[in-house]
Amino acid sequence: MRYQICIPVLPLMFCAAAAAATPPKGATAVVGVMETTDLHSNVLGYDYFKLAPEPSLGLDRTASLIAQARREFPNNLLFDNGDTIQGSALADYQALANPLKCEQTLAIYKVMNRLAYDGGGIGNHEFNYGLAYLSQVTGNRFEVDGVDASKPRCAGPAFPQVLANVYSIKTARPLFAPYRIIDKQITATDADGKPVTTTLKVGIIGFAPPTILSWDKRWLEGKVYTEGLRETASKFIPEMRAQGADLVVAISHGGLDDSTYAPSMENGNWHLSKVPGIDAMLIGHSHLPFPNAASTVPQFNLPGVDKVKGLVNGVPTVMANLWGKHLGVIGLHLSYDGQRWVVDRSKTTVEARAAQQADKSFVAPDPAIAALVAGEHEATIRYVKTPVGATDFRMSSYFADVGDVTAIAVVNQAQTEYVAKYVKANLPQYAALPVLSMASPFKGGSAGVTDYTDVKAGSLALNNAADLYLYPNSLYAVKVNGGELKAWLEHAAGRFNTIDPDLATPQELINTAFPTYNFDAITSKDVSYEIDVTKVPGQRIKNLRFRDKPVNASNEFLVATNNYRASGGGGFPGLDGSKTAVAAPDANREVLIAYIKDVRHLTRAQHGQQRSWRFARVRTAGPVVFHSAPGLLPLAQQAGLANVSQVRADDGMGKGFALYALDLSK
User: Fold this and answer.
1) What is the 8-class DSSP label of residue 97?
2) 580-610, pLDDT tens digit by residue?
């Protein structure tokens, strides 16, 4: 494999390469175009926050999918869509804790080099550590203020990286090579069915969301500017064709949006697909798999989007989810008409292949990858054990079902602050809406008596954040009215059984069939509501008030949550993906970590006791009971739960739980 080096020299771009052999008229070929996207430096199937293996993610498992696809498609190309160098503890370790030296290669790029990537794009998160760092680790010399272009070129990936729509203010030229043309030797079949070897010239062009100027303003202001996807593609794709590109693959880090086109739009690929000359699109940023026939996400249900076949306005398009969970595979069927290669879209296939198999197991990782980055991996484990802040109170979920908010209040505060800042910077149309947040106690004893969040008072390390926020979700916010907010809370109150106040025998409070991670709650001084467990589900939320006024359908809110909930996870009424107003580029856990780092010292008064909900008071003839770990009544008392008592240190069920009682009259 060779690629042309294209140096942008206005007004023309000159490229040098050997001429490709001309295939015979009527020749056909199948080329597998593979994509990874939003890897976020998840090199291995390991969760550095849990300090435990995590088989659901990691490029080491994607490597097995790549090997399988290469066997299926002997003619193949492998590309990365971006958001590659940031997003895991390993990435932070190499960028911040122990900065990479010029001669060193990033762990993620070491692995990608081994996997023989053919090219890559640049996402928005590539800019998170600043232009000097990006210049270094990609092996580029940026002519921008603040970056010394005279320094030696540092080690970078062994494959070309392209980005067409981000320009240096100093030079008015693209920061990266806007495109490259790769000479790929392939085996085709002539009209008589005989194999022929020929050279396919594959042009790749890259795009990043123009919104990087807002998201990383502190690094980029006054140094770079962006252009819109549509006009950038219209400028460069004819050049690529003139330079001999047989195929043009757009590597565009963004999703789909069919609203009126603007050069600043974050997810402009629906419009990009209409630019003539694009044969395939590799997209990302949205952390979703596409195609996906079952998807209810609005961007995959737009006019012109075929979520079954993977077509966007007729262009084969794939998005490979995130963190190595999927591999995008486009099987391009080509025919040579005597002058050029033509894509047969009727035969072309598009898939987002999952690392999780039908039986819920995962493909085996490639063991060579773990060996390749063993040093970086062990160093990162040591790193995540270091403190990031402190807390003067214990944050736990042992009594979350009865009102202890210590394990979720700080999550809600972090999410609320993030969304409020995000809206102010990027979504002025929502600026007048109050921002609320929902969080749930992810660990509630379902897996045993040790299955609770429990972060002791004292030093907080990065891995403690995983105890507070268990799942690797992305932060989303939805726009809802007061009626929809109440319906959300009604569904969450399904965590409780219906209590008969006249029954003299003990009654179990908790509906164990209802997962604790669906018990969403608000923890805001502006909101108050009651849960009446004597009522049937759907009729339990009473006295819902915002700033001491009743909430009704005329009220509107932005509610911070996660991609799982916003897209329909948990079966909450009205939450099916259609109400998403913010699909943030950051994970909930990362938002929480950043918040703790900023606050530095958490206090119970500020971060652990703001409780919005109470049980509606009612006197019951018999006890209302629930189960939790034994000997922890002082935790309930510290959380202000004076109506909780321990009945027995052993509930008699043989699993180590204690039996507690809740007095609903207090």
Assistant:
1) I
2) 999 888 889 899 999 999 999 999 999 999 9
Averaged pLDDT for residues 274-287: 96
CA-CA-CA-CA torsion sign (104, 108, 112, 118): negative
Q: Hunting for tokens 């053919």 — which residue is that?
A: 118
What are the tokens at 596?
């703790």
Q: CA–CA separation, 196 vs 190, rounded Å? A: 7
In the chain, the amino acid numbered 245 is A
**240 within 8 A of 248, measured Cβ to Cβ:** yes
Lowest mean pLDDT among 201-210, 267-276, 309-318, 456-465: 456-465
pLDDT at 51: 87
The label of the residue with tokens 């703001």 reads: 610
**Is the predicted pLDDT of residue 437 greater than 90, yes or no?**
yes
Asked whether the predicted pLDDT for residue 15 surpasses 60, the reply is no
* Torsions phi, psi for 638 (to 5 deg): -65, -30
> CA-CA distance, 249 to 207, in Å (whole number)?
11
Angle between helix 409-426 and helix 588-599 axes, rounded to 10 deg = 100
Task: Parse the chain into domains and list their residue ranges.
Answer: 27-378, 387-615
Its pTM stands at 0.75
Share of the chain above pLDDT 70, in %: 97
Task: Point out which residues pair with 417 in neighbouring strands.
Answer: none
Q: Write out the H or E segment, with its range, that includes residue 454.
A: strand 454-455
- Local confidence band at 21 (pLDDT 50, 70, 90 cut-offs): low
pLDDT in tens, 226-244: 999 999 999 999 999 999 9
Strand 280-283 relative to strand 315-320: parallel, antiparallel, unpaired? parallel
In CATH, 387-615 is 3.90.780.10? yes
Residues in the chain: 666
Helix (H) or strand (E) holding 113: helix 107-114
Burial of 11 (0-12, 13-18, 19+ CB in 10 A): exposed
What's the one-letter identity of residue 119? G
Answer yes or no: are the C-beta atoms of 215 and 57 closer than 8 Å.
Answer: no
User: Does residue 157 contact residue 113 with C-beta atoms inside 8 Å?
Assistant: yes
In whole angstroms, what is the distance from residue 621 CA to residue 331 CA? 68
In CATH terms, the fold of domain 27-378 is Purple Acid Phosphatase; chain A, domain 2 (3.60.21)
Q: Please give the pLDDT value at position 371.
A: 97
List C-alpha distances in Å: 293 to 298, 306, 310, 320, 579. Answer: 13, 8, 9, 14, 20
d(CA 433, CA 444): 33
Q: What's the rounded Cα separation, in Å, for the pair 44 and 213?
A: 31
Q: Coil, helix or strand for 50?
A: coil
pLDDT score of 280: 98
